[in-house]
């Protein structure tokens, strides 16, 4: 019978442990905030954030301008509210497409990095 302490399901004698009992690093960063603090900002991540942000703001502002144009008329103090509201509403789809493209590019880069890391891990064994 062994009286050595058990750590993480493995027997440890003295101060030495096996390599498998050492905690492995988290190589994948799941959250957006975690990715940006570790990996930094790129034009792909900035484009995705700006595209998604403006794709949320544009239809809201466009709807408000269109509603004001219905109440006051198409032109108000020299501003063409009806036209500007419609433009903002139509900009939503291209902004969503742009942000989806940027997210796809970020995923492709992450996949390349995972494959490279897997090749390096396999080559070191």
Give a quick set of tags describing it.
125 residues; mainly alpha; 4 helices; 65% helix; 6% strand
Shape: rod-shaped
Average of pLDDT = 78
Major β-sheet annotation: 2 strands, antiparallel
| C-alpha-based Rg, rounded | 27 Å
Helix run count: 4
SSE pattern, N- to C-terminal: EEHHEEHH
The N- to C-terminal Cα distance equals 34 Å
Query: What is the strand arrangement across the widest sheet?
Result: 1-2
> Approximately what portion of the residues adopt beta-strand conformation?
5-15%
Binned, the helix content reads 55-70%
The total beta strand count reads 4
Q: Decide which structural class fits the backbone.
A: mainly alpha
The low-confidence runs, each spanning 5 or more residues with pLDDT under 50, are none
Description of the molecule:
- This protein has 125 residues and is mainly α.
- The chain has a domain of 77 residues.
- The protein contains 4 helices and 4 strands; from the N terminus they run E-E-H-H-E-E-H-H.
- A two-stranded antiparallel sheet has the order 1-2. Strands 3-4 form a two-stranded antiparallel sheet.
- A hairpin with a 2-residue loop joins strand 1 and strand 2.
- The longest helix has 33 residues.
- The two termini are 34 Å apart.
